[in-house]
Each structure stands twice: as structure tokens, then as C-alpha cells.
Amino acid sequence: MRIRHFKYVLPLIAILFLWSCGDVSAPPDSTITISPSSVSIESVIEANGTSPAKWSTQDYTVSVVDKDGNPVGNVKLSISFVWASPSPYDLVQLYKGDTKVDSPFEATTDEFGSYKFRLDFISGAEYEYTGDLEVRSGAGFASSTLDVTVGTTTTTTP
User: Fold this and answer.
1) Is 77 a domain residue?
2) Is residue 117 one of the residues assigned to a domain?
């Protein structure tokens, strides 16, 4: 009788083992942090009154820690920015490594609970916009605001 039951237990153990492998969502009561927490860019107005459009790069680091402050590795993340796309005609582009990606994209924290990526954005000319970079995992959520504005010119009278 015992051998008959064993043939059912072994496959069940194998299935449970396979489910426990791989990426997981952030555990309950964990904290997701994005650094920097916000970026504000004011376009520089040149002496001739123009502000040429230019592309800039901002590097980000996402960290996941448990309720005791310990890093949590191999956590699956969903990273998004409202206007991001790989198209060179859009305001914002997200990168996974050196590759432009659609928003949202999936990523996984390293063994130290961190994930690094970059965001390229256009500023200058008459570009003004505000948007939130968002990171989600399980019930965890964090955001970082990108604010691009046009500078003002002041004239002085002698």
C-alpha cells in the first residue's frame, strides 16, 4: 500500500519544486525605491533667445527590500513611463541594457535587490511635460516624476 501512495507524492513534490523556482513578485510589506525619486529639467535659454532641443539621459536604480530592510533578489518588476516607446519621435525612451524597449517592460532585480536602467528624454525648444516613471511588483509600487520645463528669459535695461 505504501508504494502505491508514493507514486503520487513524488510528482507532486516535483511540481511544487518547479513552481518555487524563477522570478517572484516583491514579498508583502516590502518596499520598492526608485533613485532618483524625481528629476526636474529647465531648458536653458541662450543669449539669442533660443533653446535648442536636445536628448538627455537619466540613469535609474530600483531597489527592493523586505520589511526588515534586507535586499530581495530575483524580484520580477514591471517598469513603465506613460509616453515611452522605442520610436525616435517620442518624448521618452526606456532602455533595458542598451536596447530601447516598449513601455511597460519586465525586469528582474539582481541578487542584491537592485535593477539599473536608463531613460532618455528630449528637452529644450518648447518641450514642456511632466510624467511618472512607475515600478510595480506584486502589491509594491514606486514612482519617480520627470518634469521638463522651458526656462524664462529676463532682460535688463541699462
Assistant:
1) yes
2) yes
Is 41 in contact with 148 (CB distance < 8 Å)? yes
CATH, residue 73: 2.60.40.10
Each residue's pLDDT tens digit, 80-94: 998 899 998 899 999
Residue 16 has pLDDT above 50, yes or no: no
Grid look-up 507524492 returns: 9
Residue 122 structural domain: 23-150
Predicted TM-score of the model (pTM): 0.79
Look up residue 115 and give its three cell numbers: 535593477
CA distance 78 to 96: 12
- Nearest CA to 146 among 79, 31, 128? 128
DSSP secondary structure letters along 48-108: TS----EEEEEEEEEEEE-TTS-B--SBEEEEEETTB-S-TTSSEEEEETTEEE-SSEEEE
Least-confidence region, from 22-31, 32-41, 129-138: 22-31
The residue assigned the cell 509616453 is 83
